[in-house]
Records
---
Amino acid sequence: MELEEFRREIVRGGRRMVERGLAHGSAGNLSLRIPGEELIVISPSHVPYERMEPEQVSVVDLKGNLLEGLTPSTELPMHLAVYRARKEVGAVVHAHPVCACALAAVGLGIPPFLEEVVVLFGGEVEVAEYAPPGSAELAGNVVRALGRKNAVLLSNHGTLCCGPDLDRALETSEALERTCRSYILSLLLGGPRYLPEEVVRLQRELFEALGGL
Ligand SMILES: [Zn+2]
């Protein structure tokens, strides 16, 4: 794929985030690793998704140097930290959806209360400790809480999901918001019953067998 096509993917993905309620305006950000290169493409800072053009999308090396496009998203350090820690990750999506933000605000992670929690996310979705947006400290906290899974909540902030490609990372972000909604509803109904540990272990094995992303 040409660089231009990767930049178009970011524009397309950003519009999908708005359509699916994952982001509004220019909030949140998304990136793609360019296979075989030490480069990523990432949404630029403060450009609304509806008005974003491919040539505005930032092209950055893994050290964070801007090579082409506008100033990258302020959350660039968090994206780079995930790509450095997880060689198999091809795309990262950071969003501010309503239900996930509510759980992130009260510091509640998502335990395995539905079968799909482990199958989709690799296990309990944890809450990364708070640090200011865009900081290296936040990037470290996110990588630690993400571990080998593909979704994490950011305390008082939002979500981060990763995948082998952008479609999968976006699907996981959408699934995470649905799961957060179910979890909040189950808490309101008196609290969920949790899955037996044996089931969680088997589903974790299935997640790993499917590539762990
Ligand atoms: Zn954010």
Note: The chain is about 40% helix and 15% strand.
---
Amino acid sequence: MPRDLCRAEEAVVFKDVSFSYSNGFTLMDVSFTIRSGELALIMGPNGSGKTTVLKLMAGMLKPLSGDIYLCGIDTRRIKLSEAARYVGYVPQNPWMAFFNNTVFNEITYVARNTGLSKEEYEARALEVSSWLNIAHLLQRSPYSLSEGEARRVSIAAAIIHDPSVVLLDEPTAGLDYLNKIDYVNIVQKLVLRRGHTVIMSSHDVDLLTLFPEAKVILLNNGRLSFNGYIRDLLSRAHLLLSNNLLLPAPIALSTYLNELLGVGEGSGASVEELVERTVLRKDVIGELICR
Ligand SMILES: Nc1ncnc2c1ncn2[C@@H]1O[C@H](COP(=O)(O)OP(=O)(O)O)[C@@H](O)[C@H]1O
Ligand SMILES: [Mg+2]
């Protein structure tokens, strides 16, 4: 189980947080909380501020105004190396973050720099690498790995020191469906078996149906558009469309059938009728999918 450093009930708290880059992008008055042991999705279109929010959580950026608490600690008051004991950050592109000659050196880097002894980090490297099924890769160059292997190595590097909170930046970007399901299984085990608080950023709306219990924070252009649970978001599906996100395929289909074709429970429409009406209204489906 993760080291019991995070005693706070709330793993992450944002209180009226604002932040700006010099190019003009501003995160404005963002407030939300993520409970310890919870799975959360930070969703929004490209450029909405998701990575910025993850970096603020990890203490890599500091807020201009407002407060951020990581495991109850004000991130302004701790150095990055101290914050790294509480949080593991998995970057969007694993290749950009690799800089060691072997997978073993890559996954033990943070552990070696957060004060673990050699015996301890070697034992942990064996534990996480067998857990993530990458023990056979430890002496390989990280640059020789497949996409799926590289992502597992990135996770191993982020969790080796047993942080309470694991941040995954766009974890499913560019993965095919089978690799996505494989990743979803890893994330579920991180939360359920290892007890981490897992926070993912993504614009991939499939995650909403793959993690139906997750907390969702929806961002658009640096502003908070929704803060709640998936069931409430899906019952207000227009929020996804108005925030430049697609509807998840099952929701798009049921919305289409229920609202546009008038096919609801008890309507008695046959499959043939549905097909016929669907074909007739494919312009509408196209519009839904393209929006
Ligand atoms: N280091 C940086 N310096 C200046 N602008 C940045 C930097 N990082 C991100 N931005 C800008 O901030 C905005 C939000 O970026 P980001 O948080 O990466 O969004 P997302 O992860 O949702 O795609 C974008 O307009 C991006 O160009
Ligand atoms: Mg990003």
Note: Residues 1-86+167-176+194-234 form a domain with the Rossmann fold fold (CATH 3.40.50.300).
---
Amino acid sequence: MIDTDVIVIGGGAAGMMAAGRAAELGSRVLLLEKTDRCGKKILISGKTRCNLTNTADIKNFIAMYGPNGRFLHGAFARFFRPELLSFLQKYGLDTKAERGGRVFPVSDDARDVVRVFQKYLADYNVRIVSNARVSSVSLDQHSCFTVGTASGRYLSQTVIIATGGASWPTTGSTGDGYAISAGLGHRIVAPKPALVPLVVREQNLARSMQGVSLRNIRATAFQGEAARVDSSRTPDCDYGRGEKKFPRPPVLESRFGEMLFTHFGLGGPIILLMSLAVVEALDNGPVSILIDLKPALTGEQLRKRLQSDLNKFSKRKITGIMKEYLPAKMIEPVIALAGMDTEKPAHQVSAVERDRIIDLLKALRFNVRAPLPLARAIVTAGGVALDEIDPRTLSSKKVPGLYFCGEVMDLDADTGGYNLQAAFSTGYVAGESAAGFARSLLRA
Ligand SMILES: Cc1cc2nc3c(=O)[nH]c(=O)nc-3n(C[C@H](O)[C@H](O)[C@H](O)COP(=O)(O)OP(=O)(O)OC[C@H]3O[C@@H](n4cnc5c(N)ncnc54)[C@H](O)[C@@H]3O)c2cc1C
């Protein structure tokens, strides 16, 4: 006998919201979670502060998901930021907005967000089975789903797949949902890493500057070998998701802000933002990243300033002069790249050497070898193809009674709270729709 109306597979942000909402509407809900507890990814999100959503208006909000963002209009029309914030407040969680419109719990503690969902699920008697990894879902001729786990099988009228992407596997998201969905006839857009640090060919150079965090710089991704890229094409405004203007080839994306050097290459906020464009462009050929360390100055202004310093402090070593221009750990690597001796006094620096330094300050060049693996990405791009899902209900267009929500779908966004809002919104709508479908079966 079927004693469950809705089975939710996966207890992340999307699955917990879906389970709670379906139960709130009167469905008997079973939540199957592969790990020992729900909400593990929420706990590490926003550096454990959980950036829940963003204050951006709907148009700019949707733009952060790229072309697939259109799909979210339906879910956002039903449950968006105001609804999310009042839901959280109802459960005692106050929020605050910070720089860039990022919304966090006032407590700065992601555990408080998980506590809200624990209470929500308990309030509406959602049955949770943890350590239950779903390995198969099938549908019999009576439109009843059988959900298989190592410890047993569960029957239900409807199933919601909320298994997340394939990144950060310690939180439970290992891409299981793709095989389950494909087994039910759904097309999967190849998963790829988004919001991911980049490995460069110039690893020794990156390693020599490891740990240096740069602010107020411009990084620009170009299609092409670093040595061949014309640095004068570096734009003076941002291009990329959520920006109004589109880049002209060979520019792929350009961002002003913070980045850092790691032992393998490049990381930090603006590199993560550019990473999906880089990953996609790597399929078409070499990709390079040029870093303008002094974007506020033109090459000519920088030349005048450096020449004046070389004249004024003519007895100082070049390394001493460069203290005004670079973080300490970058000075020797940059001087070496310019082919100069670090001991050289300023008055011996030739015009050619000075110009080489200027070139490096305006365009420090790296060739991207690859992104870090999918497991290390903040989100997974790709997933269950959206054209097979009804955006208003999150129901499968192929299998009646099947629903999707969260990152398992071919949806991903830049940082700023957008990924979690999409998970909450699609979870809410999937839960509501599955409950409605189960109710309609009872009436039939
Ligand atoms: C380090 C990090 C920081 C982040 N910070 C932010 C942030 O501040 N703001 C933001 O908006 N986004 C952030 N994100 C992204 C955001 O956390 C995710 O997009 C979002 O949590 C996805 O929610 P989900 O419910 O779809 O998937 P998940 O949270 O991945 O949940 C999926 C759940 O399904 C379970 N599961 C998987 N397979 C099975 C199976 N076979 N059987 C049963 N259960 C299964 C998993 O164990 C997991 O609990 C961050 C991501 C990372 C990795």
Note: The chain has a mean pLDDT of 97.
